Amino acid sequence: MPAGGRRLDGQGAIALPGLVDAHAHLDALPGAQGGPAVPRDDVVAAAGRQTLASGVTLVRAHLSGLTDGPPLAAASADPCTPLPRVVLGGPGLTGGAPDLNARLMRGIRNAADASAKVAEVAASGATWIAVHRLDAMSAEERRAIAGEARRRGLRVMASGDDLAELRAALALGVDTIEYLNRTDLPAYPDDVLAALRAVSRPLTVVAPIGYYTQYHAYRARPAEVRRPDLTLFYPPAAIAPVVDALEQQLRTAAPSPIDVSFPTLAAKFRQLRATGVAMALGSDSGSTAQFHIDAIWQEMRTWRELGVPADDVVRAGSIIAARAIGDPSRGRLDAGGPADLVLYRGDLTKTPFDRRHVHTVIKGGVVFVRDGTWVGP
Ligand SMILES: [Zn+2]
Question: Which residues pair with 97 in a beta bridge?
Fold first, then answer.
């Protein structure tokens, strides 16, 4: 053993690279829209610990604030901090809402305004910018975003929630496309599939079908959000208000885009896989009813149920996701490489992926889960 090394008993376990979630929200709890306010520090403390405890050691934060995102990313780089490493997206830009000026999503007034906002996100230290409703922007505005992002070394992730957005994203040449088509469209049309097959530059699709599947299950059985393991690390006083509001929303809300699209999503996922485009695991953790603790495992289970071989699922949640989000040294198990890893006590190919089989989680050589128990701060 090398000097200063440490020996871990991995007998009977499978060593996996630390898992990588290409689409996560660490400053949001999966409560109801407009649910109870929980102080942001408490939210990050709970979400970060849940994510790390699940075996995820690297995430791309879809959206974060200009002032609170950079300290989160900086803190996450310390191996001892109970957070996965964070690759930062800043506040997103959206078309169709020129006056919007929220912490996490801003509108644009014209091409110059779009360029200025991209530059601001890059200057904050983010390495990604999220764009929504590209189809509602002018061609000039879209070009301004892509051009300024390229000049500043910022990558672009675009929403593909509907067909017009997806077509605009493909035409612009973004780096990742988020979401499956969440409309009642029965299938992706041939021109979109042909465009995906013909993509020559690096493009990765992040389609959180595990989230949509879990959400659909909770809509049928809302009381399941009361399972105590889902609120591990939550401030005790926040648990009942968060869960009550969420259960109520799941019982009573009008059909959401996930509800409307759900019967079509498996077919759409398979269509995307069949094009050969790179696909990474992304959980949209922190979105309504997507608890961080099980988010990546829900993705992995759903991919398996849709026929993706176990090896390919693990690759999508490690090496492919790490490469897609711009940190290709991670998501791998190489001698001398970063010591981010998970020991899993179970059979990955014969039984469903199950977080309860996570035996050990190590980030940067620091052990956070041992014998299935959180031992971090
Ligand atoms: Zn998101």
Answer: none
Domains and CATH numbers, the chain: 21-330 (3.20.20.140)
- Are 176 and 324 a contacting pair, CB within 8 Å? yes
Condensed to tens digits (0 to 9), the pLDDT of residues 28-61 reads 999 878 778 899 999 999 999 999 999 999 999 9
Report the predicted TM-score, pTM, of the whole model to 2 decimal places.
0.97
Strand 128-132 and strand 155-159: pairing? parallel
Ligand 1 centroid distance, CA of 215 (Å): 14
Report pLDDT digits (tens) over 210-241: 999 999 999 999 999 999 999 999 999 999 99
Q: Determine the distance separating the centroid of ligand 1 and the alpha carbon of 12, expressed in angstroms.
A: 36
pLDDT, the chain, mean: 96
Q: Cα(89) to centroid of ligand 1, in Å?
A: 10
For residue 22, the model assigns a pLDDT of 98
pLDDT for the residue 6: 79
Tens digit of pLDDT for each residue in 126-138? Answer: 999 999 999 999 9
In sequence order, the 6+-apart residues with CB closer than 8 A to the CB of 141 are 95, 108, 110, 111, 114
Taken in order 131, 135, 140, 143, the sign of the CA dihedral is positive
Run of H or E residues at 94: strand 92-94
pLDDT in tens, 21-37: 999 999 999 987 877 88
Sequence-ordered alpha helix ranges (H) in 253-348: 257-275, 292-305, 310-316, 319-325
* CA 286–ligand 1 middle distance (angstroms): 8
* Pairwise CA distance, residues 132 & 157, whole Å: 9
- Ligand 1 centre and the CA of 14: distance in Å? 30
Distance 77 CA to ligand 1 centre (A): 21
The arrangement of strands across the sheet holding 14-17 comes to: 14-17, 341-344, 358-363, 366-370, 373-374
